[in-house]
Design a protein that fits this description.
CATH superfamily of one domain: ApbE-like domains
Structural class: alpha+beta
CATH topology of one domain: T-fold
Distance between the termini: 38 Å
Number of helices: 8
Largest sheet: 8 strands, antiparallel
């Protein structure tokens, strides 16, 4: 929890609520929604959204006052920085997924992600020579994190934590809600869904997995989820099509172009949303075979892979969560 935050609303927790309350806001360049099922205390909702705002202000790579922006726009002779506890915590976890994926997931992708600009509406393929130059700047090995001390080993290294920040923020919101006495809630950060407990009657929440490229919000599968996170990375989220070819935001650090490995989405079910966020991107980047191998080597983590022919592949235990 961020410094200075207090636990709110514990006196108004209800055992049985039939009318959930929720609040939405446009944050993190997406729509954020928090729904509470066992309290009518709107102050808890307000504070949950404030937590999201505070973390966005810290982790954004585009807000000029953010910690990440200042790191990315450091002076040529600046190499070592003392990070806030929260940024060091997020960076430490992110680097773990860089290592787990052998760099297929890389938080120093910023030179490439800024070059492609999937959110700017231009829908342009960068020039090949610009992509080649940006690729040379990517490499998480150029970061050294020791406690709260971050050292850049290359002046070209810049950070983009967008592939894991939403999950981390969702986890912190859940921490606050649990401290406030909430036992039944859904945190939805633009499709990153994190459940606090289950429904007030003890049944699981039902979380729909979006069918990729569907014109409407069609559901491909329904998951029965209690106290778990559901995160999907796919080629249909931020993308554009030129001459019939889909260009998406999941970029290969080695080539500088979007991954082309036959997958269109990977969904991760886990207790931690930051883990789900990191692993959904990492497993997509690794491809079906290596991604499945990674998930099956981990306890309490499950995955659904969808390929471009709309075949579904499940990790060990994943099918147990699918509502029949």
């Amino acid at each position: 929890m961020l410094a200075g935050m207090s636990v709110l609303g514990t006196s108004r927790i209800k055992e049985n609520s039939t009318e959930p309350i929720h609040k939405s806001s446009f944050l993190l360049n997406t729509f954020v929604d928090v729904t509470l099922y066992d309290t009518d205390d709107t102050a808890i909702l307000d504070h949950a959204l404030d937590i999201c705002k505070d973390y966005e202000a810290r982790f954004s790579r585009t807000m000029e006052t953010s910690e990440i922006y200042k790191l990315n726009h450091r002076g040529p002779d600046e190499t070592t920085f003392t990070l806030s506890e929260e940024t060091a915590d997020l960076l430490s976890e992110a680097l773990r997924y860089c290592e787990l994926s052998d760099g297929a997931f890389d938080i120093t992708i910023e030179p490439l992600s800024s070059l492609w600009d999937f959110s700017g509406g231009k829908n342009e393929i960068p020039r090949p020579e610009a992509i080649a130059r940006a690729v040379q700047k990517v490499g998480y090995e150029n970061l050294r994190l020791e406690g709260n001390t971050l050292t850049f080993l290359s002046p070209d290294t810049t950070l983009d934590l967008g592939s894991i920040a939403k999950g981390y923020i969702a986890d912190r919101i859940k921490d606050y809600l649990v401290e406030a006495g909430v036992k039944s809630a859904i945190i939805n950060l633009g499709g990153n869904v994190l459940c606090v407990g289950g429904r007030p009657d003890g049944s699981p929440f039902q979380i729909g997995l979006q069918k990729p490229f569907a014109e409407r919000q069609e559901t491909a599968q329904i998951l029965a989820v209690t106290d778990l996170s559901v995160v999907t990375s796919g080629v249909y989220e931020r993308h554009f099509i030129i001459d019939g070819k889909n260009y998406h935001h999941l970029l290969n650090p080695e080539t500088g172009y979007p991954y082309e490995n036959g997958l269109i989405s990977v969904t991760i079910l886990s207790s931690s949303s930051s883990q789900g966020d990191g692993l959904s991107t990492a497993c997509f980047s690794l491809g079906l075979e290596r991604g499945m191998e990674l998930i099956n080597s981990m306890d309490g983590v499950y995955a659904c892979f969808i390929d471009e022919d709309y075949n579904f592949y499940y990790s060990d235990g994943m099918e147990d969560f699918i509502k029949k």
